[in-house]
Amino acid sequence: MNKMARPVKQLNLPQLLQQQVANHADNGLLKKAKYLQISDALRTAIKNGLVKSNEQLPSARQLALELLSNRHTIMAAFDELIAEGWIESKQRRGYFVADVLPVISSQHTTKCPNEQPEHFTWQFRKKTVQRYQRSAADYRYNFAGGTPDISLFPFKEFKGFVNDALSRPDLASLNYGDNAGHPALIEQISCYLRRARALNNRKIVVVNGSQEALYVLSHLLLDDQDSVAIEAMGYAPAWNSFKSAGASLVAIAQDDKGMLPDSLSQAIEQQNKNSKPIKLIYLTPLHQYPTTVTLPIARRQAIYRIASAHNIAIIEDDYDHEFHYRCQPLAPMASDDPRGLVIYLSTFSKIMFPGARIGFLALDATLAEAVVNYKTIINHKVSVVMQDAIARWMQSGAFERYLRKVTKTYQQRRDFMVNKLHQYQRKGRVISFTIPDGGMAIWIQLDHSAKQLKDWAEKKDIYLQAEHQFCATPQLNDDRFIRLGFAGMDCNLIEKGLERLFNHEF
Ligand SMILES: Cc1ncc(COP(=O)(O)O)c(C=O)c1O
Question: Measuring CA to CA, which residue among 104, 91, 121 is closest to residue 44?
Answer without folding.
Answer: 104
